[in-house]
Amino acid sequence: MAEAVKMPKMSDTMTEGVLTKWHKKVGDKIKAGDVVAEIETDKATMDFESFQEGTLLYLGIKEGQAVPVDAIIAVIGENGEDYISVLKSESSAPVQEEKQAEPEAKAAKQDKSAPAVDTSNIPATIIRMPALSDTMSEGVINKWNFKVGDKIKSDDSLADVETDKATMEVVGYEEGTLLYLSVKEGEAVPVNGIIAIVGKEGTDITPLLNAEKSDKVTKSEKSEAPAATTPDAIASPQKETSSAAVTESSSEEDDSRVKASPLARKLAQDKGINLNDVKGSAEGGRIVKKDIEEFKPSEKVTPSSAGSIDKSAAPPTLPQYIGEEKYTEKPVTQMRKAITKSLSESLFTAPHFYLTVSIDMDGAIAARTQINTVAPVKVSFNDIVIKSVAIALKQHPAVNSSFRGDKIRFNEHTNIGVAMAVEDGLLVPVVRFADGKSLSRISAEVKDFAQKAKAKKLQPKDWEGSTFTVSNLGMFGIDEFTSIINTPDGAILSVGAIQQVPVVKDGAVVPGNVMKLTLGCDHRVVDGATGAAFLQTLKALLEQPIRLLA
């Protein structure tokens, strides 16, 4: 009998997985234990082994596609067996069928709607509210400069519009008779809404208005259609023109009323050119793109009063730099999604507070040098910190605890999570029972975890079960920092770099090596005095490493 193969839950925080590669194709024979696919979880990319035997009848997702846990990804059964019944029996199948039926239902609904009216032969043009700023959603007609029946020229300012940024002029760039004004002064019009209609005198504009209302109803039914932000984004049967905005100038010489095409005005703004300085070549002295491109600063018209000014004392003309705004976007990885979710929940659920202490590392430096002369594995300062933390936690079990809703768990074992940066984010493998392990053993495990993390080969058993976390950015030269607690741990230690600074010893200022540690605590389980006592014990262990052997 055919069986569904579902997306497995491969970590405790996994909610969905990305199928990065199929190792089998439809028609292949599958045995129990065969690697069917590679799945990217929120922690690592892992092999997915089949627990069923038979023929691969169906592949439900493509490589690179993300699906939630427990969603069907394949069907295995006898060769030639009907697998459709398996898909229908699962809850995901009706959802898929429903989605496929949506376009048909919408098409049927549209067929029942009233037939569209042809407005292409109507000698009139709709003037719409332009988007005069990047945050504008509507504009208020502050003042109409014409009334219905007036003759309009292409460069006339139809109205003054108040936006969320300033009061600006709107030019329709159409000639004819003003046939219609949509609102009164003081009323608002949404971006892309009709503000006026210009056309041949005596034209019946009722079909245009009816078509506009019908178009709004249709768009409201299509909730998935993106809202247009510019007039060009709206497709309509009749001829339309987009309004152009003339912004207020903050310079001493306002160029907002200079006749210029929208493109010329945009180019002038980008190049820092005041339109008052440009001579227009189009009809009526109107400035066009060509005039801006050919404009040179030396062509600026100076006032007649400037004749008495020494030209040699004129300020130098600085070259204009025109940059280009650009960016790239990448899809959020499963690991980044998990980091976002877990750290957000930690920060906004657990009340964090932080304690910082300075450590004299002279003793640790000397001890490390001696240890590495005999140790089978090179020991790092981070290894010494991990060992010291584990021993200190045995003396302060309240810091080695976690909040569990209606109870607090005090862990008697010390499993230290070690934060490691990888290409896609952050992983926290766990050194288990660190208090009972030698420095060499801790060093070997951390190095092995680092290699696995880089190769995305860590398994769930490697990162689960921490009771405390150490995050070290000292190797990047960071003096001190704070970390977000890795839940369900009750605390996290942020380790800074060892800095060579002047210190006072025996009343004299001498060179010293100082490292700062910052303890982040969940105030639900760790109080200030408790955290401070833990740091004092940790400080003593690091400043006198011989205590690690006691």
Task: Please sum up the structure shown.
This protein is of the alpha+beta class. It is 25% helix and 26% strand.
Report on the architecture of this protein:
The protein has 550 residues and is of the alpha+beta class. It has four domains: 3-111, OB fold (Dihydrolipoamide Acetyltransferase, E2P), CATH 2.40.50; 124-245, Beta Barrel (OB fold (Dihydrolipoamide Acetyltransferase, E2P)), CATH 2.40.50; 249-303, E3-binding domain (Dihydrolipoamide Transferase, Irregular), CATH 4.10.320.10; 334-549, 2-Layer Sandwich (Chloramphenicol Acetyltransferase), CATH 3.30.559. Helices cover 25% and strands 26% of the residues. It has eleven helices and 28 strands. It has helices spanning 84-89, 92-112, 206-221, 262-271, 289-293, 334-349, 362-371, 381-395, 439-454, 460-463, 528-543; strands spanning 3-6, 16-22, 29-30, 35-40, 45-49, 54-59, 66-68, 72-77, 124-128, 138-144, 151-152, 157-162, 167-171, 176-181, 188-190, 194-199, 240-241, 244-246, 352-360, 401-403, 408-410, 416-418, 420-422, 425-427, 430-431, 468-472, 491-505, 508-522. It has a six-stranded mixed β-sheet. Strands 11-14-16-9-17 form a five-stranded mixed β-sheet, with no helix packed on it. A five-stranded antiparallel β-sheet has the order 15-10-12-13-18, with no helix packed on it. Strand 23 (420-422) and strand 24 (425-427) form a beta hairpin. Helix 8 packs across helix 9 and helix 8 crosses helix 11. The two termini are 64 Å apart. Residues 92-101, 223-252 and 301-309 have low confidence and may be disordered.
